[in-house]
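Translate structure to sequence.
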């Protein structure tokens, strides 16, 4: 018997095909540009596009809501040549995106069909998180119940609050949540990273009333439900969740500029006061404390005590695109670690910088030497084996786990092919069932956001068709990273998923 299953979410998720056209043209232009520049030994990273970027300040790459045009070309000349940043292809042009009303997915609207030879049933077979993933410092090894644990999975940035369906920033339809988690399981993930679940501050210039802390020290009790549900549902699917607590930028779900604005701090130098202004630091402390002490209404478990959460991340891409800003100083990261540790002694802490090696100067981030940091991280846009090789060699002796928190899994921007990149990461993984030498780090790899597949950057349907081979490569890689036999074809999921 052959199952017709839908790997992807339903047709409501495939709006904006007109944008897809634009995007592909832009991507093609970007690729040509990139190919020309790729001779550089160390390529620059590009900003990931969460499409509409509304600044509350004026960083160089900022867009404004009324004139969401590609940012002005900026060139930097370094020893590795000059490049244009950021790429226009990663932004949506035009004033706004049309927001389609949220719908509950039904089988009749499922498209495109994916003919799967096997599919997961129910919530899959991953064990439900009941104990914490911890780090063994001597071996720099993450373990679960005494066995090595390697983080693999997708980013699903819209999992709690979205920008494409329903009013901007509104809570994600729970059927979409379940479907996304099912897809993650089918692809071999054991963990997801979900930016809009952890980052939820401000009002986005009064355009988004849904965030968790819309104004200073006022928490929106309605905003907890989706977070509680995502953690509850993730537990049901056997997935763990990385929660990132703020963003370096100013997208609809907010970020560091909200804390600066609330405390009327300077926005100069890409918001550098975020790391030194006492009132701003205290405001972030309040957000974190409220967040990690919240009690889940579905499970009754306080967040600080929930093994479904695998780690807190101090921010997303602090230090900025292509490391153009400054990393948080030692004093700030130490303060954030202490803030978390006041209530939470159990979760891992990720120093949420955009890389930790400055490929221009050779400088390293403070988090690399701070004892409270368990994991250091980087995002690969484009994929670049030179940078992660160097970072691996720095993280290992520093006894930090290395999380590749995002990377470009498409063929669009990178000269290093996906298989080469994934093979390099695999060459660093620990061997389960064998003694792991004290010097061997386990590499953590969370894939490029699945939003690219099921929602998102306008590429939607076409990106999926074009990228099927890459999605399979990625799924097989995640299975191998976790010492399971990889599937020969993509595994399907039922659409819609069972309701619970
Ligand atoms: C990396 O070095 C460049 C050149 O000195 C500097 O402009 C940039 O701010 C640095 N990045 C970080 C994150 O420190």
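Result:
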């Amino acid at each position: 018997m052959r199952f017709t299953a839908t790997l992807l979410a339903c047709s409501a998720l495939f709006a904006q095909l007109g944008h897809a056209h634009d995007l592909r043209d832009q991507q093609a232009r970007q690729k040509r540009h990139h190919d020309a520049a790729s001779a550089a030994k160390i390529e620059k990273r590009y900003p990931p596009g969460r499409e509409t970027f509304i600044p509350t300040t004026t960083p160089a790459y900022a867009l404004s809501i009324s004139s969401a045009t590609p940012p002005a070309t900026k060139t930097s000349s370094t020893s590795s040549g000059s490049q244009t940043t950021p790429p226009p292809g990663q932004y949506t042009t035009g004033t706004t995106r049309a927001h389609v009303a949220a719908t509950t997915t039904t089988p009749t609207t499922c498209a495109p069909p994916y003919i799967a030879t096997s599919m997961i049933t129910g919530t899959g077979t991953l064990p439900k998180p009941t104990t914490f993933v911890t780090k063994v410092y001597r071996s720099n090894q993450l373990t679960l119940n005494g066995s090595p644990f390697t983080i693999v999975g997708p980013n699903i940035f819209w999992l709690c609050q979205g920008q494409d369906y329903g009013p901007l920033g509104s809570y994600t339809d729970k059927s979409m949540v379940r479907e996304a988690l099912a897809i993650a399981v089918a692809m071999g993930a054991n963990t997801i990273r979900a930016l809009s679940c952890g980052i939820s501050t401000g009002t986005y210039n009064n355009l988004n009333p849904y965030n968790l802390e819309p104004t200073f020290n006022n928490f929106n009790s309605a905003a907890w439900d989706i977070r509680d549900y995502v953690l509850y549902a993730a537990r049901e699917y056997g997935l763990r969740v990385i929660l990132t607590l703020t963003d370096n930028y100013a997208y609809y779900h907010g970020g560091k500029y909200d804390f600066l604005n609330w405390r009327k701090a300077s926005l100069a130098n890409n918001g550098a006061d975020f790391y030194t202004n006492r009132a701003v630091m205290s405001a972030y402390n309040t957000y974190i404390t409220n967040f990690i002490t919240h009690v889940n209404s579905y499970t009754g478990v306080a967040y600080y005590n929930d093994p479904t959460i695998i780690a807190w991340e101090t921010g997303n891409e602090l230090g900025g695109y292509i490391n153009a800003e400054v990393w948080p100083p030692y004093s700030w990261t130490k303060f954030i670690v202490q803030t978390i540790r006041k209530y939470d002694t159990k979760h891992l802490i990720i120093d949420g910088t955009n890389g930790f090696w400055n490929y221009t100067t050779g400088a390293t981030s403070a988090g690399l030497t701070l004892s409270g940091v368990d994991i250091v991280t980087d995002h690969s846009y484009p994929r670049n084996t030179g940078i992660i090789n160097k970072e691996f060699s720095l993280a290992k002796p520093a006894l930090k786990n290395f999380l590749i928190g995002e990377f470009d899994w498409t063929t669009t921007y990178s000269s290093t092919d996906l298989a080469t990149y994934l093979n390099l990461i695999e060459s660093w993984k620990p061997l389960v069932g064998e003694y792991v030498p004290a010097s061997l780090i386990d590499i953590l790899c969370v894939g490029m956001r699945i939003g690219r597949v099921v929602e998102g950057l306008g590429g939607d349907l076409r990106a999926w068709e074009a990228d099927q081979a890459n999605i399979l490569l990625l799924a097989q890689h995640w299975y191998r990273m976790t010492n399971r036999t990889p599937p020969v074809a993509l595994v399907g999921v039922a659409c819609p998923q069972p309701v619970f």
